[in-house]
Amino acid sequence: MDDEAVGHIAATSEFDAIRQFCCGDAKTVSLDQLGALMDKLALGERMNILYAMKHILETETGESVFKLLLVLEKIQETALIPATVVLNVLQTNLEVLKNDENAKVAIKTAKNLAILEFLKDSKKS
Fold first, then answer.
1. Which residue of 23, 83, 85, 97 sits 20 to 30 Å from the alpha carbon of 124, by its own alpha carbon?
2. Helices (DSSP H) in the chain: which residue ranges?
3. Residue 3 reports pLDDT greater than 70
């Protein structure tokens, strides 16, 4: 993403909410906090959500990325954003993460990709 696009995304409420959840100091994930985040995102702009996620995938590592993958999983579960749209924006980043040195991240990424591909293919049937 170019600097202007990053500036635009970083200025959104969606980015702020996702960043606070993923990049905060907490070592554990609170399901209540995840639920509250999903409530906020349900009211947000879908493309801002995806590009905020893309920015975090490109700039963060470890636990922050793992937490983001949990958010992505919840987005799929709630059908907040269609799988084809998610794949159009995030597929390249997710393909790279399948080989991440952090096994938790690699496994969660592979799971997310498999679910997204299944959801994408099931819409064609």
1. 97
2. 3-10, 13-23, 31-42, 46-59, 62-78, 83-97, 103-124
3. no
